[in-house]
UniProtKB/TrEMBL annotation:
It comes from Promicromonospora umidemergens. The lineage of its organism: Bacteria, Bacillati, Actinomycetota, Actinomycetes, Micrococcales. SMART domains: DAGKc. This is Diacylglycerol kinase. Keywords: ATP-binding, Kinase, Lipid biosynthesis, Lipid metabolism, Nucleotide-binding, Phospholipid biosynthesis, Phospholipid metabolism, Transferase. Residues 6-137 form the DAGKc domain.
Length: 305
């Protein structure tokens, strides 16, 4: 932990209007109102869409704020992370996405943007890990929670293609549709410091934090400050046996099963059959193979004292 806000300089607030179907914008405006009410010089950066918000992140950092506040979800945070890390600035999060798993991990208030904004001023400064995902073409993407590749990433793909229904029902239908056509994937995992592993499986999670999807503890033993990735691979056990894993995963008890492989590593290369894609922080990454790496305590996060 480091010192709290010293009261000098301005605060930059980045608002993603696309997060959480508009909740990112609403939370951002509430955060700005709270900070200004507390006498802070606030500069707001809000694009017309997520892509413009990312472009504005560099401008915000170039103006040398004391703290950067991001109003949005995990995907927004990771998309604007590079300039924040390069500048070494503290980051405060006003959760406004669908999952908000970074905020859940660190006790940042959900559903109360004013209280979350207060952490930019009153919160402790905690050094936490981030990760990078490198594709074979050299493209690098940052992430802050969990990368997944399997049934869960295919469910995300299907959900994004669907236009009906809306809300959580759309995701539930997508899960059911993917379960009906459940595929096993021949994963090859090559972790640093451990033997390579070839294993058929259904679900692969690689986590800096414990949860994805709004609190589902796919990597329940992950420590966001240890510089390691927690890898969880659910083996191909058959469609009906796999049904039992739903409750186990939600309780974080699946890692106790013999048909689940877990390991910790600072970096890992992941290969799988053509067509399988990866998602991280709830956002599309791209097809496998990828190399995933943890970076220890490189981000300063504003968290509750």
């Amino acid at each position: 932990m480091t010192e709290q806000f010293g009261g000098t300089g301005h605060i930059a607030v980045l608002v993603n209007p696309a997060s959480g179907r508009g909740s990112g914008a609403g939370g951002g405006h509430a955060a700005v109102d709270r900070l200004r009410a507390r006498g802070v010089d606030v500069r707001v950066y809000q694009g017309a869409d997520a892509e413009e918000t990312v472009a504005l992140a560099k401008k915000a950092v170039d103006e040398e704020p004391a703290v950067v506040v991001v109003a949005g979800g995990d995907g927004t945070i990771s998309s604007v992370l590079q300039p924040v890390l390069e500048a070494g600035l503290p980051l405060a999060v006003v959760p406004g996405g669908t999952g908000n798993d970074l905020a859940r991990e660190h006790g940042i208030p959900l559903g109360d943007p004013a209280a979350a904004a207060d952490l930019a001023l009153d919160g402790a400064r905690k050094r936490v890990d981030t990760g990078t995902i490198t594709a074979d073409d050299g493209t690098v993407r940052h992430f802050v929670t969990v990368l997944c590749a399997g049934l869960d990433s295919l469910t995300n793909e299907r959900t994004n293609r669907m236009t009906w229904p809306t809300g959580p029902a759309r995701y539930r239908i997508a899960v059911y549709a993917e379960w009906l056509r459940l595929k096993r994937f021949g994963y090859r995992l090559d972790p640093v410091g451990a033997p390579a592993l070839a294993q058929d499986g259904y679900v692969l999670g690689i986590g800096l934090t414990r949860s994805y999807g709004g609190g589902v503890p796919i990597c329940p033993r992950a420590d966001p400050t240890d510089g390691l990735l927690d890898v969880t691979l659910v083996h191909a056990v058959g469609r009906f046996r796999f049904m039992a894993f739903d409750g186990l995963i939600k309780a974080g008890k699946h890692v106790e099963r013999p048909d689940v492989t877990t390991l910790r590593t600072s970096a890992i290369r992941v290969e799988a059959p053509a067509g399988l894609v990866a998602y991280a922080d709830g956002e599309y990454v791209g097809p496998l193979p990828v190399t995933v790496e943890a970076h220890r305590e490189v981000l300063t996060l504003c968290v509750p004292v």
